[in-house]
């Protein structure tokens, strides 16, 4: 690596962490567009890129391929989402071992959503049925691998396992939990070994600020990263509300719907999201985790509004400049 390469990817001091969530392509034909999006996001020099695992792990193989490729060939830390709902313990162990064997050292441990359309669904007997149990399993598999070979132990010492968890600053409507119950859950996840937390999306800065204040008072000391969704597409906001129970402000929806063009709608949403992001940074958030839905432009335009994009124009990106895009199929 040359000095120019080092300068290109060095993170400026005092910059809040910047990270993105992406979803593996659902079909092979979508892979080129997906990797183009990843390339654009990497150009912002994020601290990490999280890769979703899909409902009940339905895109397990694709997620593993995407994360493995990022580990091997991209200048960014990938975080692998990991869910456990609806799987036997043996299945979850297999997935964890696959990721660890691929060199993955960072995970987002999630219980996952129960299967849709199954109101009588019950957790798998003897399975891994919570994020806390998943944290324990990850740590157990890491210990087993380190004990099996001194090389694994050395790699583990040089690159310790990092486990993130999710948290819901206004309570989790899907689980029926309140904000205080989410704080209690976060304390349990912290005690189990969580390294940091990422919040569900929210639309008001005080939602984040008040949650963090109460969590700190209760004894939560791990970093709590603010999860942000660019509010540029009213259809997506409503769809996300159906899935998460987190509804966007009516005033924001009205403004987006009244826009006379896609460009005006994009500008309104970008500005609103940037204002929210700036407010949570001012409130002490350590960084921003942007839910991209595989759309680079809204995420990058939000960062541009915040003056957090600092890669020099026309600087080559290793993901494009190398043979990565033409390499291993996604």
Task: Describe the protein in words.
With 330 residues, this protein is α/β, with parallel strands linked by helices. It has a single domain, classed as TIM Barrel. It is 47% helix and 13% strand. The protein has helices spanning 3-9, 31-42, 60-73, 89-101, 131-148, 150-158, 179-192, 205-218, 234-244, 250-257, 262-282, 296-305, 318-321, and strands at residues 17-22, 48-51, 77-83, 106-110, 162-167, 196-199, 224-228, 287-291. It has an eight-stranded parallel barrel, surrounded by six helices. Strand 2, helix 3 and strand 3 (77-83) form a beta-alpha-beta unit. Helix 5 packs across helix 6. The longest helix is centred in the C-terminal third of the chain and has 21 residues, at 262-282. Residues 1-9 and 311-330 have low confidence and may be disordered.
- In the sheet with the most strands, the strands line up as 1-2-3-4-5-6-7-8
Q: Strand pairing plus helix content: what structural class?
A: alpha/beta
Q: What name does CATH use for the topology?
A: TIM Barrel
Distance linking N and C termini: 26 Å
Low-pLDDT runs of 5+ residues are 1-9, 311-330
Q: Averaged pLDDT, please? A: 85
Number of strands: 8
Write the layout of secondary structure elements.
Elements: H1 3-9, E1 17-22, H2 31-42, E2 48-51, H3 60-73, E3 77-83, H4 89-101, E4 106-110, H5 131-148, H6 150-158, E5 162-167, H7 179-192, E6 196-199, H8 205-218, E7 224-228, H9 234-244, H10 250-257, H11 262-282, E8 287-291, H12 296-305, H13 318-321
Parallel strand pairs: 1-2, 1-8, 2-3, 3-4, 4-5, 5-6, 6-7, 7-8
Catalytic activity: (6S)-5-methyl-5,6,7,8-tetrahydrofolate + NAD(+) = (6R)-5,10-methylene-5,6,7,8-tetrahydrofolate + NADH + H(+)
Pathway: One-carbon metabolism; tetrahydrofolate interconversion
Keywords: FAD, Flavoprotein, Oxidoreductase
